[in-house]
Design goal:
By secondary structure, the protein is α/β, with parallel strands linked by helices. The longest helix is centred in the last third of the chain and has 25 residues. The protein has an 8-stranded mixed beta sheet with strand order 5-4-3-2-1-6-8-7, sandwiched between helices. Strands 11-10-9-12-13 form a 5-stranded mixed beta sheet, with helices on both faces. The chain has 2 domains: about 150 residues, Nucleotidyltransferase, domain 5, CATH 3.30.420.40; about 180 residues, Nucleotidyltransferase, domain 5.
Length: about 400
Amino acid sequence: MTESLLTLNAGSSSIKVALFAAAGDGDALPAARWSGQADGLGGGLKARLRVRDAEGRTLHDAALDGDRRSHQGALAELLEWHAQQGGGDDRIAAVGHRIVHGGVNFVAPVRIDDAVLAELAALEPLAPLHQPHNLAGVRAAMKAFDGVPQVACFDTAFHSTQTEVNRRFALPRALHDAGVRRYGFHGLSYESIIAQFTRLAPELADKRVIVAHLGNGASMCAMAQGRSVATTMSFSPLDGLTMGTRCGHLDAAVVLYLMRSHGMSAEQVETLLFRESGLLGLSGVSSDMRELEASTAPEAAEAIAHFTEQVVQHMGSLAAALRGVDAVIFTGGIGENAAALRERILEECDWLGVHVDAAANGAGHARLTTPESPVSAWMLRTDEEAVIARHTAQVLRG
């Protein structure tokens, strides 16, 4: 019987699953045997499950109906498909989960028990778009794999290397001690990128690197010697860059104004800032960068310009945190696929010493800049599932 590791990344209406061999190659990022994604779960959306092999070939593509439109149902559908393909001889040795917020106490992957699950649930108000759904995935896996170890891997953990200066708000120290601090997010993605970059360009990976994870959720991270120095998200995944539906950086007094002068409740403000702002709020058209780029509406162009300017400004801020920069890397759904936007950002960063190679960028090459560029720019595809699998294997080994 083959032993395998399953990874789960559960969102509000989706769940990503991947299967890895349990016997990994030390600290190297493993390759998934297959990966699946179910979208449109819950709500009134059309739910669908797609599975691809390691080369990206489609193995399964089917609609999900009835009770299969839940996280638990989609997982059951996926496992049934796997068994039908001859996977019945697989024994799931452990399930690894992406957990967005680890709070103060969780700075490394950990096996999940009832006490850990309760502590993570208490953090849900800090990441309301993510944490409840991450934990729903944990509970679904616990039910599907009774007695199998469940391992939590945290987006916040990667940023625990930052100095106290960069982790503190200018608030009374008692609040910091109570957990009101900068945490940072997208850590599993950043860990994936620096691992890949170490193999691709080892002479640069240990230097000063800025990674831009640009997608519906967007953040940037300054790294030195492969460790987080500063990042744009802070206490919650709301801060920093303009995002699909999240506002990004905001003067805290705006919240007070909305509550006092517009009579908005805390719940209404939360909905506004997390679900109705960002690219969607700016454009009134869409939160999807592809739709904005295809739109002729002037508001769509303004939203793209706003997003670009925020990336460029934060690029300068993170370069200052590093006291210089040697390489810039793009990843995430926008960072990996929006070539025109990447070129626009890189052209605006020419002052930083980034000289874009338009042909290489348009072709989606890994290196996006000319050989003479003082600061090189790259595009790498994030692989959070591989990082989760590596961490899960390490926890099992003890």
